[in-house]
Amino acid sequence: MVRILVIHGPNLNLLGTREPEVYGSTTLSEIDAMLSELAGELGVEVESFQSNHEGAIIDAIHDARGRFDGILLNPGAYTHYSLAIRDAVAAVGLPVVEVHLSNIYQREPFRHRSVIAPVAAGTIAGFGAESYRLGLRALAHLLQGDRAQRRN
Known about the structure:
The chain is an alpha/beta fold. 41% of the residues lie in helices and 18% in strands.
């Protein structure tokens, strides 16, 4: 079975109460439950991890190699400047889909640049909690397609 690691970056543990006009009112546990339900429908397995610490996120990315087939990543503010997370994504060689609740291109100019996007399979932003569901669908499709091609 395809296994996907979901990584939630800094401040996402505060979802539901943190700036709901920007990030919505859905909590992180509700997002994780949504993803688990969708994973069942898609025939994939998900495991979620959240950290406010850059090094812990990097360790989770490293530890995913050999345990997971892909990563669904919301790097939060690290999106815009963490070359260390970008390098970890590039180093492990797993497909990564980057997701954001808000449309980073409609926000402050410093948020318009993602250092993760160039090493990700794709980026989905601006659809609130639905961004995660869209990202999971995209990653599952990509990974299941890769498996089918390897079998042929």
